[in-house]
């Protein structure tokens, strides 16, 4: 909190109205209003998303791509329409580039295991970073065991940024560079285009885990220029059960099928099969149809508010949170990650004196304040931070300054309870 | 609400019942290509014999619904004897006619079809005469059947690619 | 329709009331009531399932297994509670035996690829049947290419039953016997216990694709004695986006992780990972939480009606359909599969004179009658039947004799239209 | 609604602030086993020294919340010097106390815990004295924390298994 932060853009989001769109925020917990500060874990869902799924089930539910009657056509149009919406939302060139998976984890597994198994050889270097989520680590560990790839790590510096001083050496000879666009622990926004260029300069495939980015900032995958981008529906106001793998047509064509069965084939005989066209080649079995409808409604909702406005709001609110917590708790609190809110999302991992995060959040819970404690599926990063666990409060479009104040009050309460 | 008559024109049923150019050609010299419609299981095999950049002969086998079979039959009549350039222009024109966008349906409702966000112009040149193929225009009102109607043409394009390479 | 059918059990399902539980059945299509006869493709959803998911999202939505606050505990309890309900519904010994996947296809891929890759060697025989769905074929084709396993096929006889005359020879030396408990094309109920015993007698692992069975008949996986059983939520009144792999603890323990990432680990370091306990070891990333809640409500709904009653109803209705169609269309109609309704589910694949199935269903659609035309993701079986496609009408608990009559009237209309 | 005082008894906070038997033992001869609580990241390492079927010494290291740390500390005091049979009985008794079923919560709400459908009887023998460990009884009212409280015991059982094999 010592660097001079960049100017904070004007917050044009009408948070009072946004809050009303989310039914769960009316809920009371232990007699207090719900203060939901765990959106990096999963987001809440606006009424429009729930209504779209309900309407789908009540009017057009049928299986897709195979129906020869009206509601099946409607269901197919709903699924493919949602694909188009998602494609536009992230700036894809074509909806053939959008593969629906069950979550971001499946999307990253598809990259590592379908593309990776086909193209990686023993000793091939794969570069990831120390701030990755397990979803972008463990599949590569499996390929270390299976193929004998070499895993290289871009380090994180003390300020929570990627340390790119040895980037050239790290990417030298690499076949893959795979990294998060935003850290789910530190909030750090990484230099996506620079990393993509470094990857391509080295002849490597560039994979972006945008699970924390797409929900919070305007995204243009085409401008990024990567080969693959993964993200997940439930963190961006959409339902559980759906994720997205974006890929260029060239790389998707060069990727063999992953999960296989119905829907993803053109032909099956007793001796073999012919895969379907993009993107269905990667969608085996009945897809998450209602979930796609919900995700389509989610991107309509976010697009309606405007992702610039969402980002500006979160930027301003993150700045408020950093200042408030800093002022109220001084040296008793350590907030990890970049000090400048322009360089980060609203993910605030912190420790408070020597109270264990799980004990902290237990007290918060008494007050309806929902904060996660743990390793946030990023154990290698936590180890670099020298922590086994942190408390993590994460902000989204429906949070406001009162929520941040409730968090600060909850920290005070924990401090009192554990008698400091 | 479009009626069944929009789909099943008399000439379509005629091609279905009396398919033209049905059969096989020895391959090689003919190019043999299979096409599948994963939706309803239509299967088509096209045998294409090209000489001096002209379709010398074409034969169709396989199984499918009235729309896919009659479209294949019409296609075979339409391309036989034509130059490859003419065939490509015809194919563009036909696929243009089958493009759901032309019918100004919502792009979001395009279904499991050709679904570019920025579809190119449909390429229906002013001087391409579709002739009998016009009878299939009603298919676009039944989006699911578009794949049936375009199967033969997509398979033909694949055959053209393969024979030229 | 020549064999003497077994006596049909009394139908105790109150279909009028059941119909009212399914909102979509109120819908009109082209001015007529919706006659939904495609439940083998996907089932409709009762209000109770939609309400349960809605309530989850409006009250308890949070990520699971990691929350340190009330609604996260509720979400975890909802997910794990649903697991318990599913476990009880299919007679599992423990909910550790229930793995949530995205659909049956993922479940079967998990078996072939996680268990199979770890245990199968070049030349190892894997036995499947000619009536399998692509989901139980294509993953094995991939292992033929990858490992060089040998794929063997149990044939189907003219009556639509498995031809088990060469069973001993076919399973001799086999490592896996994997088969559908009910055909999605012919309705044939296969002799599950006999096949499991044959598999085990040969030292093979027994895998049951129960996607068409669990929704329609009382299921007891423990009594079956198989090693793995796969099924899918959306065909059993549940939502899209969820499937189930049941496995004994012994075989699940012997199966390495499949998709990997968050949730499925106990520990991750820069050099490796330790998988979580059963069943979470196989659930990478955010699971289909709301979908599990919906599936839990679906099995509550089905359990409330009683699966014996559901089966008795479908048995009686299938008998009615076979008789009605046989009487009204005689030799003009060919209905594939067993003639005795006691030996089959309510899946009626048929051809009518030389009208192509897709043309038939086009006319049906004008009348609001939803029937699928195609290969039903079972191309090898269709080839054995000598058909490229069939029309398939499939019955479920919300169908009644009026629906069957509407189908017969629709066939008449198609016959008129194509001028016979 | 249970209050925080049900969870954070004074004796628990005491064990948390002044953990007993903290440290390491040379291994071998001691058995060293790691345990993880995937929920909140608790990590524990147990060093177990068994001689003549008796726990000669035990040491605990690792990091965790007050519940997991104090439970580990209490466990170490409770088992030191005991025979393996006594340790197993204690462990059964403790896990019985932690069993959510005992509290007659709906089995459907059992969460990411030990979740057999047919859980065996919880095995709290009549003559097993839990002593200080009783202080952890309030944890069952906070289902999420059960994993924290049982982590040390589960890891100990694993150590027993490993040293006997
Ligand atoms: C017998 C059978 N197995 C597997 C499947 C695949 O189910 P899902 O598409 O839900 O993965 C189906 C249904 O499509 C089926 O009928
Ligand atoms: C950066 C990052 N990557 C991947 C994931 C995995 O997403 P999911 O659990 O939806 O697969 C998450 C969230 O958990 C995440 O924060």
Rounded to the nearest angstrom, the distance between the terminal CA atoms of chain A is 24 Å
CATH class of the largest domain in chain A: Alpha Beta
Strand order across the biggest sheet of chain B?
A: 1-2-3
- Please, what is the CATH homologous superfamily of the largest domain in chain A? Type I PLP-dependent aspartate aminotransferase-like (Major domain)
Low confidence ranges of chain B: 102-125
Radius of gyration of chain A: 22 Å
Q: Sum up the overall morphology of chain B in one term.
A: globular
- Overall helicity of chain A: 25-40%
Strand content of chain A: 15-25%
In this structure, how is the largest beta sheet of chain B organized?
A: 3 strands, antiparallel
Overall description:
The complex is a heterotetramer, with 2 copies of chain A (420 residues) and 2 copies of chain B (165 residues). Chain A is of the alpha/beta class. Chain A folds into 2 domains: 15-33 and 306-417, Aspartate Aminotransferase, domain 1, CATH 3.90.1150; 96-286, Aspartate Aminotransferase, domain 2, CATH 3.40.640.10. Chain A has 14 helices and 17 strands. Chain A has helices at 15-20, 47-60, 70-89, 104-119, 138-146, 167-171, 192-201, 221-224, 249-253, 289-305, 307-329, 357-366, 379-385, 401-417; strands at residues 28-29, 32-33, 35-36, 98-101, 125-129, 150-154, 176-180, 205-209, 228-232, 243-247, 265-268, 273-275, 333-335, 347-352, 369-370, 372-374, 390-394. The two termini of chain A are 24 Å apart. Chain B contains 5 helices and 3 strands; from the N terminus they run ααβββααα. In chain B, helix 2 (10-17) crosses helix 3 and helix 3 packs parallel to helix 5 (143-164). Bound molecules: pyridoxal-5'-phosphate (2 copies). One pyridoxal-5'-phosphate sits between chains C (103-105, 133, 135, 180, 184, 209, 211-212, 232, 234, 243, 377) and A (262, 285-286). One pyridoxal-5'-phosphate (PLP) sits between chains C (103-105, 133, 135, 180, 184, 209, 211-212, 232, 234, 243, 377) and A (262, 285-286).
């Amino acid at each position: 909190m010592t660097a001079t932060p960049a100017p904070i853009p004007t917050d044009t989001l009408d948070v009072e109205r946004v809050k009303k769109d989310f039914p769960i925020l009316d809920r009371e917990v232990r007699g207090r209003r719900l203060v939901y500060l765990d959106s990096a874990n999963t987001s809440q869902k606006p009424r429009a998303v729930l209504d779209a799924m309900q309407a789908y089930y009540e009017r057009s539910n049928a299986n897709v791509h195979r129906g020869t009657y009206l509601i099946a056509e409607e269901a197919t149009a709903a699924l493919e329409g949602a694909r188009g919406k998602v494609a536009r939302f992230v700036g894809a060139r074509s909806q053939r580039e959008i593969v629906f998976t069950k979550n971001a984890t499946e999307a990253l597994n598809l990259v590592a295991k379908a593309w990776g198994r086909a193209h990686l050889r023993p000793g091939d270097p794969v570069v990831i970073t120390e701030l990755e989520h397990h979803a972008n680590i463990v599949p590569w560990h499996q390929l270390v065991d299976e193929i004998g790839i070499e895993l290289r790590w871009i380090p994180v510096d003390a300020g929570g940024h990627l340390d790119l001083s040895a980037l050239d050496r790290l990417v030298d000879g690499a076949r893959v560079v795979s990294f998060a666009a935003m850290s789910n622990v530190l909030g750090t926004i990484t230099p996506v285009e620079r990393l993509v260029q470094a990857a391509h300069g080295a002849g490597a495939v560039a994979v972006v885990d945008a699970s924390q980015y797409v929900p919070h900032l305007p995204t243009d995958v085409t401008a990024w220029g990567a080969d693959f981008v993964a993200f997940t529906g439930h963190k961006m106001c959409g339902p559980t059960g759906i994720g997205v793998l974006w890929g260029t047509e060239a790389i998707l064509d060069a990727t063999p099928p992953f999960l296989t069965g119905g829907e993803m084939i053109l032909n099956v005989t007793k001796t073999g099969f012919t895969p379907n066209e993009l993107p269905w080649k990667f969608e085996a079995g009945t897809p998450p149809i209602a979930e796609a409808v919900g995700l389509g409604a989610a991107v309509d909702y976010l697009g309606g508010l405007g992702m610039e406005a969402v980002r500006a709001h979160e930027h301003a609110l993150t700045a408020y949170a950093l200042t408030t917590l800093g002022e109220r708790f001084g040296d008793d609190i350590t907030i990890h990650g970049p000090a400048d809110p322009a360089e980060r999302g609203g993910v605030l991992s912190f420790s408070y004196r020597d109270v264990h995060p799980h004990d902290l959040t237990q007290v918060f819970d008494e007050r309806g304040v929902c904060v996660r404690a743990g390793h946030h599926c990023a154990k290698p990063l936590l180890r670099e931070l020298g922590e086994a666990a942190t408390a993590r409060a994460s902000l989204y479009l429906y949070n406001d300054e009162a929520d941040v104040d409730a968090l600060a009050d909850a920290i005070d309460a924990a401090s009192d309870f554990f008698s400091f | 609400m479009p009626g069944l008559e929009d789909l099943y024109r008399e000439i379509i049923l005629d091609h279905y019942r009396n398919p033209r150019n049905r059969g096989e050609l020895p391959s090689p010299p003919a190019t043999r290509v299979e096409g599948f419609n994963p939706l309803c299981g239509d299967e088509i095999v096209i045998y294409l014999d090209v000489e001096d950049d002209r379709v010398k002969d074409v034969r169709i086998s396989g199984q499918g619904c009235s729309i896919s079979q009659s479209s294949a039959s019409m296609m075979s009549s339409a391309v036989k004897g034509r130059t490859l350039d003419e065939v490509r222009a015809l194919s563009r024109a036909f696929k243009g006619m089958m493009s759901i966008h032309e019918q100004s349906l919502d792009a979001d409702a395009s279904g499991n079809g050709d679904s570019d966000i920025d579809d190119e112009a449909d390429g229906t040149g002013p001087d391409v005469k579709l002739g009998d193929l016009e009878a299939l225009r009603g298919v676009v009102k039944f989006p699911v059947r578009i794949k049936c109607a375009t199967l033969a043409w997509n398979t033909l394009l694949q055959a053209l690619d393969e024979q030229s390479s």
